[in-house]
Amino acid sequence: MSHPRTPAPHQAAALSRRSLLSYAGGAGALAALAACGGGSQGSSGSDGDLTWFMWSGSTQEVDAWKHVAQMVTTADSSTKVTFQTASWNDYWTKLTSQAASGASADVLSMQSLRAPQFAELFVPLDDKLESLGIASDTFESSIFDGLKVDGKLLALPYDFGPFVIFYNKTAFQEAGLALPAEGWTKDDFTAAARKLTTGGKYGFFANNTIDGALPFVLSDYDVAAVDDSGKLDVDNDAWRSTLQWYADLITKEKVAAPLPSGNTSSAATNQFQAGNAAMTLDGPWSLINAKATAKFEVGIAPVPTGMKGSKTWTAGSGFGVSTSAKDPDRAAKAVAVLTGVDAEKYLGQQGRAFPARVSEQQSWYDGNDLGDAKTVMDYSIQNSVPYKTTANWTQVNDTYSRYAVTAFNGDSTVDDLIQRVQAQGEK
Amino acid sequence: MAVAAAPVVPPGTKRRGTKEEVRRGDGKVALGFLTPGALGFLAFTLFPVIASLVMSFFDWPVLGTPTFTGFGNYVELFTTDDTFRTAIVNTLLFVVLYVPVNIVVSMGLAVWISPRIKGRRYYRVLFFIPAVTPMVGNAVVFTLLLTPNGLVDSAMKSWFGVGAPNFLGSSAWAMPAVVLLSVWQGFGYNLLVFSAALDAVPQHLVEAAEIDGAGAFRRFFNVVLPLLSPSIFFATVLTLISSFQVFTQSYVLTGGGPGNSTTTLVMYLYQSGFQFFRLGFASAIAWVLFVFIMIITAVQFIGQKRWVHYDQ
């Protein structure tokens, strides 16, 4: 921010007090406006200064990211990274508005699901990998490929994870049920949900996002939401029958809780952690928080086996170089450090990320006492596909979220949901 | 809006010579004081208003280059866009449900705490608390009350053995829930307006009516209420304008859902502009809403002659 400017003394002497007042007023206002304009500038021009924009949800997270940013300076003392942050939801709005005003940070963070939507903000990193000394096979291939759009690598991944079943181990044991494990089936899942639905608590909490239904469609039909040509394709029997089964869990079987409202994508996570539903679907990024929050023992299991096996999707996030970066090479070097071995080990140990670097994944298990999760994680990763999305995924998912509530609660039909989502995808 | 009073010239003031020079000087000082405000108005009101009008004629993505489409956005809104139609219906439904309930509740409470009640000042403060509580905070509390297994649901289960409807997750109940939150949030302001107006009702008129044999009911509807009509008009105009702009309630409580059942015009505007990044389209919605509000306010001002009494 620049300081408001006032007229120099020798000028002031020549002016009457009144004119001085009027000029000072105007100048002050102008300076204030100029300061506002200047404040929004993200990229800093000088020398080795870089800005890095990343979402975060707590001060602990911010501290962890700042620690990693410091690693960039340790690796190259001429580079200094300034960390900028926003909450997850605000991040995407701010990222867009900053890009629109040409004031993006030098290093940007990107989630694989949103990569097609924001592809034009990134400098492809493919040519730089060799000079940075990065071998692509040190990263988990599904997320490394997941951050590519049209064959171009937009960002290097730092975390990733498969969507898996989270279950209330205590409730399962008290009900005398076998704990869900590799090889359990959809029938086992429904039977457990029935038995666990008692006393105002439910066996399952359904997600009103495509994320929650996709693993079941994959397991039964080996069909995803986006076809090989990159187009949304949910208007088919695979989706229809899976979503009908999913909705029936709420309306017919009554083993899953009714969805509470149109805007609660976190309802499943919250209700599970509060002990109101014994099972839900979630990613490893929620596991450490779930274990810390829940007053029961939290377990994870692979998606129940369907007609085509137990399958799920993986997604993750990474860091890339903004097209408006003043020094793209320096920014690329910073990205290499932010996703490097040391950073990944640190983030894994801190429980901030399930590392995208295969060799550092053990630090996540070791640092967070999650040894028992390893078999489930390994199995789910092996049986997963990258979560592919379209460029207007926000619209598609928004339509799904709001109409899933009506379809799953029995206010409308699954057909209606599918048609609306498909129509949104074709816009 | 305040209407600028005509300048009062003190008797005997000469409008010549030195006085005029002083006036010119005053102009400069006035300029000095007005500049900050005027710049703010130019930068943050006038410029965005004009910019949004221009943008509404473009296909204006946040990223990438805008293309001129003429009335394309408006044509899309009125011909092919189902969500826009739903948003209009939802907004009108909200207005029709909310405005009368708000006026009746705030008027009812204002009358109730009118002079006869002990400690009415404390009631005024008490009733005004929801109005100064941030809307988001109120909405979160309402979510906890209305959600399945929330307070209302649990209480109904233990008292009647039957649970409450899934208020926020049902297309039929979501809009009434949004209205309920809005009334809770909004009645305090109008209550203050009516309360002050009730205090200003000349007591001798009420007493005269009483002597003439008018009962409490007649005294209120035939004497007090006409005297309150300017306040009712003021409250109705402001409440109507703000209710056409309803956004936060449905954004926090229901996210515009389930389905599109609580997607109001401003909610749809926000989604189009800031979630789907169609700035031109969102600007077109804003202008349609602006014209709506302007017409309805104009109609109210024309209609007021029939029922608003300014003389006592």
From TrEMBL, chain A:
It is found in: Cell envelope. Its main location: other. Keywords: Signal, Transport. InterPro entries: Bact_solute-bd_prot1, SBP, TAT_signal. Gene3D superfamilies: Periplasmic binding protein-like II (3.40.190.10). CDD domains: PBP2_TMBP_like. Pfam families: SBP_bac_1. The keyword Transport applies. Coiled coil: none annotated. The keyword Transcription does not apply. Belongs to the bacterial solute-binding protein 1 family. This is Sugar ABC transporter substrate-binding protein. The lineage of its organism: Bacteria, Bacillati, Actinomycetota, Actinomycetes, Kineosporiales.
UniProtKB/TrEMBL annotation, chain B:
PROSITE patterns: ABC_TM1. InterPro entries: ABC_transporter_permease, MetI-like, MetI-like_sf. Residues 88-300 form the ABC transmembrane type-1 domain. Residues 1-21 are annotated as: Disordered. The chain crosses the membrane at residues 29-58, 87-113, 125-147, 167-187, 220-241, 276-302. Its main location: membrane. Keywords: Cell membrane, Membrane, Transmembrane, Transmembrane helix, Transport. Gene3D superfamilies: MetI-like. The keyword Transferase does not apply. It is found in: Cell membrane. CDD domains: TM_PBP2. It is a multi-pass membrane protein. Belongs to the binding-protein-dependent transport system permease family. This is Sugar ABC transporter permease.
